[in-house]
Amino acid sequence: MLDRAAGVEDKLLPNKLEMLHSHGAKYAEPLDPDPFDLTVLEVTLRNVEVRKGYRIYVKKDAPRVIDPPRIKK
To answer: Which of 5, 45, 47, 10 lies closest to 23 in space, CA to CA?
Structure first.
């Protein structure tokens, strides 16, 4: 799951990117993953998919925009 999250690293918000790096360091050695850590990674990946329909630029937009503009199709 860390590999999947690392694949979308450029789309992560700063706090999620920090969390991903923290989990990468924590699980550098093979360990049984903590169920909470797995849930956090699943939610992070889901949120990247949810944001696809919105115009969100993770590098320059302010975090926690409640009603971001939609991408016109």
So the answer is: 5
User: Scanning the structure block, which residue is given the tokens 């889901």?
Assistant: 46
Output the six-digit token pair for 53.
């329909």
Half-sphere exposure of 70 (CA within 13 A, CB side): 2
Report the domain count for the chain: 1
Residue entry with tokens 């850590």: 37
Q: What does the alpha-carbon distance between residue 42 and residue 1 come to, in Å, rounded to a whole number?
A: 8
Domain-embedded: residue 65: no
Q: Tell me, yes or no, whether 20 lies in a domain.
A: yes
10-29 tens-digit pLDDT? 888 788 888 888 988 988 88
| pTM of the complete model beyond 0.70 | no
11, part of any domain: yes
